[in-house]
Specification:
- The chain has 578 residues and is α+β, with helices and mostly antiparallel strands.
- The protein folds into 2 domains: 315 residues, Hydantoin permease (Orthogonal Bundle); 98 residues, Immunoglobulin-like, CATH 2.60.40.
- 58% of the residues lie in helices and 7% in strands.
- The strands form 2 sheets. Strands 3, 4, 5, 7, 8 and 9 form a 6-stranded antiparallel sheet that branches. A 3-stranded antiparallel sheet has the order 1-2-6, with no helix packed on it.
- The protein is globular.
- The two termini are 22 Å apart.
Length: 578
């Protein structure tokens, strides 16, 4: 089978499925080389969500080494289908919505492509909100204003400014996007190395920082029931010399009178690291039922004032709770979530590889750009946050560690340092947003009405939806979204790869992809084999969300959805072709 670049041999320009933007990219217009393909992945992978990925795992109790291994393994796994699905983009020069017509049908592909587009619109909104926060930090640094912890007008102004910058690159198209990614890649790699250098120099050395940061793996306080006596075990952060960063702590709990009981501020030392709540004053039933919590706060004296930690709410562990049998399931759950991080791009990678010159360049470029960059910047996030807990005196507990780099960089007192560092953040977020969250949905929307919607209009639709989804409320739900998304998109990828490599053995009728009555039109434009396989794959992947006995299917949603739909599509499609 030849992998030679294929071209249209018939005139299909009059077809309603054809437009100049969706047409195959001819060989002479393939301008993306190995460096461009690697740099686009560097530009996409270097983003704030990548920076904070490990934090979710470390906060759940995993070591930073385990978090980094899971991230690296997940990205090696997802790069394999990424390069496989990118093969058709190079060979036929078509974007994902056109390629998907072969497996889903000329109309059925709208289900898969719009599913991918909606997810991208959500990410577009989240990334645009994050980029807007960088502008907000710059404004505060220049004017000397105090940053607000909640939503305020200034944050929405920053969101609007960054949104308009994204529109600029949407307007000028893919060549400007290629320029942006190639320009940003070396800057972003340099930024990561500079952050590691800062963390090492300010945190007492490379090894000291990593040793100090292991504290973040432990909960700040734990509530336990010792034969009816409730105990609070305290583990706030310590200095390098093993002394506590906080000076005092305060515990409050529900009292038997119905009013909360607040204990006096108590000096923190090794003897007070475990506190027993007075049984005669404590409403134990309210705590055991989960109706009320025990609250702990720490503070540090600075002259005549105090630096206060956030309040930690403690509940008792649920009895007979299950973690799916062992810690292994926890690792697999996180692995699924990390695979889901780029699940969208594994579907639509042909949108980018259609501009590549050779298969070799797309394969090497993607393997060079994706797994290594994800591990590097996840480590940057880990290391710099570890350094911050040693360098900033007001970080008294693990919950207050500044995993978000925008918040971290805003802590620096020099306005020049803040402005320059936030500009780096803006470049990183912009390069990710345009490449990962604009190209695919723009093509998907253009594919609905090829004669009326081009790339530019599709990109504008994406940007508008990115506002409507209210991203300022989505950021903290990112891990749950990743798991849910991976369950939806694994089946789509399974169908695409089965169709292209197993059923059609990499041979497509390029002309028929643009014909309303060709071999990919099927009945009414929908391939029943793909629709049924997709539906069953999604349902079986997500059924464990509602049925605890099948929770393993949900925990491994990307893998289960992929495999189920892959096999079912093969069986159904073989019967249809016969």
């Amino acid at each position: 089978m030849s992998d030679t670049i294929q071209t249209l041999r018939e005139d299909v320009s009059g077809s309603p499925l054809y437009s100049e933007h969706l047409a195959p990219v001819p060989a002479e217009d393939r301008t993306w080389n190995l460096w461009n393909l690697a740099s686009i992945w560097i530009g996409m992978a270097v983003c704030i969500p990548t920076y904070i990925l490990a934090s979710y795992m470390i906060k759940s109790g995993l070591s930073w080494q385990s978090a980094l291994i899971i991230i690296g393994l997940a990205n090696l796994i997802i790069t394999i289908p990424m390069v496989l699905n990118g093969h058709a983009g190079v060979k036929y020069g078509v974007p994902f919505p056109v390629l998907g017509r072969a497996s889903f049908g000329t109309k059925g592909i709208h289900i898969a492509s719009l599913l991918r587009a909606i997810v991208a619109c959500g990410w577009f909104g989240v990334q645009t909100w994050i980029g807007g926060l960088a502008f907000y930090a710059i404004w505060n640094a220049i004017t000397g204003s105090e940053a607000s912890l909640g939503l305020d007008f200034g944050k929405f102004v920053g969101f609007g400014v960054f949104w308009m910058i994204n529109l600029h690159f949407i307007w000028y198209g893919t060549e400007h996007i290629k320029w942006l990614e190639s320009f940003a890649a070396p800057i972003l790699v340099l930024m990561g190395l500079l952050l590691i250098f800062w963390g090492s120099s300010e945190g007492g050395g490379f090894g000291t920082v990593l040793k100090q940061g292991k504290q973040l793996e432990n909960p700040t306080a734990v509530l336990s029931d010792n034969s009816g006596i409730l105990e609070v075990r305290l583990t706030p952060l310590k200095h390098n010399d093993s002394t506590y960063k906080a000076d005092e702590f305060q515990v409050s709990f529900p009292g038997i009178s119905g009013e909360p009981v607040v204990l006096d501020w108590t000096p923190l030392n090794s003897e007070t690291a475990v506190v027993s709540l007075p049984k005669a004053e404590t409403d134990i039933e309210a705590i055991q039922s989960g109706a009320q919590t025990v609250d702990v706060q720490f503070r540090k004296r600075t002259g005549a004032n105090y630096l206060n930690s956030s309040i930690v709410n403690l509940t008792l562990p649920l009895q007979n709770s299950s973690d799916d049998g062992s810690a292994l399931w926890g690792y697999l759950l996180w692995l699924t979530a990390m695979v889901g991080f780029w699940a969208t791009m594994s579907l639509s990678i042909a949108d980018i590889t259609r501009y590549a010159r050779t298969q070799k360049e797309q394969v090497i470029g993607q393997f060079l750009g994706l797994p290594g960059t994800m591990m590097l910047y996840s480590f940057v996030g880990i290391f710099v946050t570890f350094a911050a807990i040693a360098n900033f005196p007001d970080i008294l507990i693990a919950a207050d560690a500044p995993w978000d780099p925008v918040s971290l960089l805003a802590r620096f007192e020099s306005p020049i340092v803040v402005v320059i560092s936030q500009i780096f953040m803006i470049i990183a977020t912009l390069s990710t947003n345009i490449a990962a969250n604009v190209i695919a949905p723009a093509n998907a929307f253009a594919n609905i009405f090829p004669q009326k919607i081009d790339f530019r209009r599709g990109g504008f639709i994406t940007a508008i939806i990115g506002i409507l989804i209210a991203p300022w409320w989505l950021l903290d739900e990112i891990s749950g979204i990743l798991i849910f998304v991976s369950g939806l998109l694994g089946p789509v990828l399974g169908i695409l790869l089965c169709d292209y490599f197993i059923i059609r053995k990499k041979e497509l009728n390029l002309t028929a992809l643009y014909q309303t009555d060709g071999e990919y039109a099927y009945k009414s434009g929908f391939n029943p084999a793909a629709i049924i396989a997709l539906t069953i794959g999604i349902l079986l992947a997500l059924v464990g969300y509602w049925i605890p006995a099948l929770s393993f299917l949900y925990n491994l949603s990307w893998f289960t959805g992929f495999l189920i739909s892959f096999v079912l599509y093969y069986v159904f499609q073989r019967k249809i072709l016969k």
